[in-house]
Amino acid sequence: MWILIAAAAVLVLVVLGVVLLRKPRAPKGGYAGTRDIDDIPEVDGDTALEDRPVSTLERPESARGRLARLRGRLAKSNNVFGKGLLVLLSRERIDQDTWDEIEDTLLMADLGTDASLELVENLKKRVRVDGTKDPAELKSLLREEMLALVDPSLDRSLRTESAPGKPAVVLVVGVNGVGKTTTVGKLARVLVAEDKDVMLGAADTFRAAAADQLETWGARVGVPTVRSEQEGADPASVAYDAVTAGIQQEADVVLVDTAGRLQNKAGLMDQLGKVKRVIEKAAAVDEVLLVIDATTGQNGMTQAKVFAEAVDITGIVLTKLDGTAKGGIVVAIQRGLGVPVKLIGLGEGPDDLAPFNAEQFVDAIID
Ligand SMILES: Nc1nc2c(ncn2[C@@H]2O[C@H](COP(=O)(O)OP(=O)(O)OP(=O)(O)O)[C@@H](O)[C@H]2O)c(=O)[nH]1
Questions:
Q1: Is 340 in the pocket of ligand 1 (CB under 6 A)?
Q2: What is the pLDDT along the chain (367 residues), one digit of tens a residue?
Q3: How far is the CA of 280 from the centre of ligand 1 (A)?
Q4: Which of 21, 88, 295, 356 sits most deeply, having the most CB atoms within 10 A of its CB?
Q5: Range of the domain at 77
Q6: ipTM, 2 decimals?
């Protein structure tokens, strides 16, 4: 009997011991996190997960996503001018004063004198002949006439198709501060998003920081930059090195950034002409893009003419269109130079560069 009582007591003690010594169970769903960064266990010795280099490369936005987002931004800055025109056209009586106001509105939007007069004359004729009063009809009339000025028939495609054994070469020129380096960086992203192998050439050797800036843009998307460590190095030689490196590494496109900081027009002509000639010893230059700041108005037009004399421009990049209601500059520049606007910059963000599309541009202004 005593033996049985002793055995039962031992059993009770053992069970109690087991219960008391067991670790507390986590509540369902776990505890709220209380760890700090130092508690994160290291993966394989000394490399933490976040240190893996692949995760630092950015994936640029696709052209489709970019266009939809930037269309809104263009409308925000330029809609005022389009809406103003529609209000004037909808007046009960459109007299000469109203036509003068319409012309002023167009001039204020930097459309240029010739294009403004032409648009007013065409609108006058059509409003008189058709006797249009209906707002929807007036809008479609304005849309048609503006579209004719922006000219949807121009070839705005970027020549970035490589030839056998040779990359396509794009030379980017313009005065300092207009957004050249930023544009080269953004364009590299557009091309990377299209699965192209890109090489950058930092031929803006006036400022070491310009090459650093370009290199940073490239590194974000895994694109190499050819540069000189020497400030004031010969830009033509850096451009040549970039193109030959592009050939050796079988790149699809080489983008060459240049300096715009020259004391005089003759110096600029000599330098740009030389950069182009020296590149052509290695490969053909497919595009010469002139970058113009849309906020500079007539000044931008004067600059454009100087550059066009120095080198054959094949396309215009109009930057900072997000910060101005002067979208009419597109028409003035195309007419002045006879060269299409191919790309537009609509912000400082890395994916704020879009191909120019005449229909979308006019719709953003008047819709
Ligand atoms: N809002 C806005 N800012 C822009 C745009 N493009 C460039 N910028 C800004 O313009 C400034 C000048 O740009 P850069 O690319 O350094 O100009 P750059 O022509 O290379 O100048 P230099 O190297 O001095 O010759 C920067 O602050 C850019 O962020 C744009 O489309 N919109």
A1: no
A2: 555 555 555 555 444 444 344 433 333 333 233 223 333 333 232 222 223 344 578 888 877 777 778 888 888 877 778 888 888 888 888 889 999 999 999 998 888 899 999 999 999 888 888 777 788 888 889 899 999 999 999 999 999 999 899 999 999 999 888 999 999 999 999 999 999 999 999 998 888 888 999 999 999 999 999 999 887 889 999 999 999 999 999 999 999 999 876 557 778 778 899 999 999 999 999 999 999 999 988 788 888 888 888 899 999 999 999 888 888 999 999 998 999 999 999 999 999 999 999 998 898 888 8
A3: 28
A4: 356
A5: 63-150
A6: 0.96
For the Cβ of 84 lying below 6 angstroms from any atom of ligand 1, the answer is: no
Q: How far is ligand 1, taken at its centre, from the CA of residue 174, in Å?
A: 11
Same domain flag for 120 and 223:
no
Shared-domain flag, residues 204 and 176: yes
In the reported structure, the alpha carbon of residue 179 is separated from the centroid of ligand 1 by a whole-number distance in angstroms of 3
Asked whether residue 281 is marked as a ligand-binding residue, the answer is no
Tell me: do 305 and 176 sit in the same domain: yes
82 lines ligand 1 (CB under 6 A): no
Domain assignment present for 354 = yes
Q: How many domains does the chain have?
A: 2
Q: Are residues 145 and 174 in the same domain?
A: no
Query: Annotation-wise, does 328 bind a ligand?
Result: no
Q: Say if residue 180 carries a ligand binding annotation.
A: yes
Distance (Å, whole) CA 151 – CA 145: 10
CATH (domain of 270): 3.40.50.300
Q: Same domain, yes or no, for 184 and 236?
A: yes
Q: Is 185 near ligand 1, meaning CB less than 6 Å away? A: no
Pick the residue whose CA is nearest to atom 17 on ligand 1: 179
